[in-house]
Amino acid sequence: MFEYRVEGRTGSARAGTLSLPHGEVRTPAFMPVGTHAVVRGLSAGDVRRTGAQIILGNTYHLHLRPGEAVVEAMGGLNRFTTWDGPMLTDSGGFQVFSLEGLRRISEEGVEFQSHIDGTLRTLTPERAVEIQWQLGADVAMAFDHVVPAQSSPQAACEGMERTLRWLDRCKARHAELVGPTSPQTLWPIIQGGIHDELRIRSLEGTLARGPWTGVAIGGLSVGETKPVMHRVLELLEPALPRDVPRYLMGVGFPADLLEGIARGIDLFDCVAATRNGRHGTAWLPNGRLNVKGATLKHSTAPLDPTCDCETCTTYPRGYLRHLFMVEDILALRLVSIHNIRFLVRLGEQARDHILNGTFDGWSREWLGRHYAGGD
RNA sequence: GGUGGGGUGACCGAGUGGCUAAUGGUAGCAGACUGUAAAUCUGCCGGGCUAACGCCCUACGUAGGUUCGAAUCCUACCCCCACCA
C-alpha cells in the first residue's frame, strides 16, 4: 500500500507506478480535477475512458456541499461518485489563495465566509484532515498556506513557516485517525513562493517531518513566470526523495507537463483541461484551437486527428463549433473529454519515452511544435 | 376612404435641436483562463486611412425645407400597424 516503484528514468524524468488502495497509477500522470466530486460535466465513465487513473476532490467545497458527513454516510467518495479508482483530496489550502477576499488567516486556521450562503466556516489543519478522512480518498493533502507569487519575501516566509507548523498538526491528527493498515495516506506540501532559500527551508523542514509516501510542490502557477517556476523545480529536484512520487499541484497546460516531467515531477493536476474545454479552447499537438472560431464552420476534420478520444474519433470540428454556437452542454463535455485525454495521453507518451530512453529528443521536438502554436 | 400610432445601424430597441457614428440587448468576431466562487470574464463590433493621438466619408423610410447646427422641427410622398367606415 502507498508504494512507489521507479521503473525508468532519463535525466531527472522518471517513470514509475504508484500503488494505492483503489488501484495503481502509472506515472508521469495527469489527474483530472473533480472539485465537487465530479469532473465538471463528465460521468465517471467519461473520465475512465480518457484513461485518467486518479481524480481529485476538494475539502473546502465538499465540506460546504454536500458536507463530509453526507459523503461518509453515502459510503465515501468512491461509492458516492461511482468512480472506483484512486482518488486524492486537496485540503482547502488553495482556497486560502483563491478565496482571498472571503477568508481570514490566523495561526489556528482559516475562517472562510462561505461563498454559497455567507456562513462562517473554519478550517484548521486538524479539521482539514478530519474532513478528508471522512471523505475517504486514498491520498489526503496537508492543509497549507498558499501565497501569491507577487508576495513579499516576508509574506512568503510567513506562509511557508505556517505551512510547516500546520503540517505537524495535520500529521498528528491524521495519525490519530488512521489505523496501522490505513486506507489513506497524507502528503505534505512544499511552499516558499519564488524564493530559493525559502523553498529549500520548506523542503528540508518537510522532509524532516517525514517519512512521507509522496511529496507535493505547491504555490506555483500562481502568477510567476514559467522560467521562475522551472527554476524552483530545478532547485528542489536534487533534494527530493527518489522513492516517492512528486506532485506538482495545480499544473498545468500541456507544455507545463513536459517541462515538469523533465524536472522530475510525477503527478500533476489542473483545472485548465476542463475549464478551457468548457470555454472553447482545445489543446492540439501544435498549440491551441479556438473551437468557437468561424474558420471551423465548415470543417469536417476531427478536432485532433492524432487523438483517440471519443470526441476526436466521432465528431467533426464544424459540429463541435455548432454545439458551442447553440450553447449545448454537449460542447462543454466533448472538449473537456478531449483536453483531459490530451494530457493523459501526454503522460502516457512521456512515460513510454522515458522507459525507452527517448524522452529528451521527443520532448524537445514536442515542445518546439507546441509552443510554435501558442501556449 | 377616415382617424391615430409608427418607420433608427445584421436584428430588437433607446434617443425628440448641438455633449450622437448614435444608450441597451441580441447575433457576430477575438482574447483570457494553471491544487475550479468560472457553461465564466474581457475587448471589438458602419466604411476608409493611421503604429497611435486622430482625420475623412457615409448613415436614423424617400425628397425637399427651417436653422450657425437636424435622427430630433416643417412640407410632400412611400411603406407598416391599430381602430372606424
Describe the structure in your own words:
- This protein is α/β, with parallel strands linked by helices and 375 residues long.
- The chain has helices spanning 44-49, 59-64, 68-73, 76-81, 93-98, 125-135, 153-177, 196-208, 226-236, 254-262, 272-279, 310-314, 317-325, 329-356, 359-372, and strands at 3-10, 13-20, 23-27, 29-32, 55-58, 87-90, 103-105, 110-113, 120-123, 139-141, 185-187, 189-190, 215-217, 246-248, 267-270, 281-284, 287-290.
- A five-stranded parallel beta sheet has the order 4-15-14-13-12. Strands 5-6-10-11 form a four-stranded parallel beta sheet.
- Helix 7 links the parallel strand 10 and strand 11.
- Helix 14 runs antiparallel to helix 15 (359-372).
- The longest helix has 28 residues, at 329-356.
- The protein binds one RNA strand of 85 nucleotides through residues 31, 33-36, 40-41, 56, 58, 61, 88, 90-91, 93-95, 97-99, 102, 115-116, 141, 144, 146, 189, 216, 218-222, 247-253, 256, 268-276, 278-281, 290, 292-294, 324, 327-329, 331-332.
* Adjacency order of strands in the biggest sheet: 4-15-14-13-12
Which outline best applies?
Answer: globular
Largest sheet: 5 strands, parallel
The whole-number mean of residue pLDDT values reads: 96
Rg result: 20 Å
Instruction: Flag low-confidence runs.
Output: none
Number of helices: 15
Structural class: alpha/beta
The portion of residues assigned to helices is 40-55%
Distance between the ends: 38 Å
Into which percentage range does the β-strand content fall? 15-25%
The count of DSSP E runs of length 2 or more, i.e. the number of strands, is 17
